[in-house]
C-alpha cells in the first residue's frame, strides 16, 4: 500500500509540471513543501496544515508616541491650535504645597486641572473639597502612584477604580480625565481606558519642578516652550523631601507673562472640549 501511495505522489508531480509548471500548483500543497511521512491512512486524504512561517509570537511594545498616534481620540498631550493654555498640577492633595498653589490661582482667577492620588485623597479630603469648590477640575492619577508600564491591565484597573470611587464620594462625579504617573502607560491599559470612557492626558510642556529647581528655571522651562494649546505640567504635591518652592514662586510670573502674550487659561475639559466626568 505504501508503494501505491508513493507512486501516486510521483504521478501527481509529473502532471503538475506538465500542466502548471510546479508540483505544488496541481497537488494543492502548502506554499512551503513539507516532507512528512505518516502511517495513518487519514493523513493521505487530509494533509497536516503547517503554521505560516512569519507568525510573530511576541510584538515589541509600542512607545508613547506610537500609542498617541494610534489612540489619538483617547490619548491626548496637547490641545488645538488656539490661544489657550491649560495649567495642570499632579500629585495632589499635599498640605505642604497645594494650599499655596490654590491661593495663587485664586488671586489671578485662573482655573486649572489637578490630578489626584487616591491614598492622599483619603488622607486629605478637605483639600480635595477646596480644589473642587474653587472651580478647578479633578482627574485620576492612580491610588499609589506606581509605574504603570510594568503593571498588568488588572492592576491598572484596580488603581484607577479605587481612586475613582474615593474621589467621587467627595466631589460628586467620576473623573473622565486620567493621567498615569510619570506619563507612562502600555497599550493594554490604553485599550481598557478607551473601552471604559476615560481620556488619558499627558502634557507637552514640562516645568521639571519635581527636580526641586528654583523659580528662574521653572519659569524658563515653561515660558520657552508654551504655545497655542499647550498643556503644562506642574506639581502641587510630592514625596518626602520634595521642594516645590520654585513652582510657588514662579507661578505668578508665568501667569502674568502668558496673559501679556494674549493667552487665556482654561481647564483641560475646556481646552479639549470634553466633559469632566464619565
UniProtKB/TrEMBL annotation:
Is the Oxidoreductase keyword given for this protein? no
- Quote the cellular component terms of the Gene Ontology held in the record: membrane
Q: Name one GO biological process term.
A: carbohydrate metabolic process
Alphabetized UniProt keyword annotations: Hydrolase, Metal-binding, Signal
Entry-linked InterPro entries: Glyco_hydro/deAcase_b/a-brl (IPR011330), NODB_dom (IPR002509), Polysacc_deacetylase_ArnD (IPR050248)
Has keyword RNA-binding?
no
One Pfam assignment:
Polysacc_deac_1
The region annotated as signal peptide is 1-26
| Protein name as catalogued | Polysaccharide deacetylase family protein
Task: Tell me which species this is from.
Answer: Paenibacillus faecis
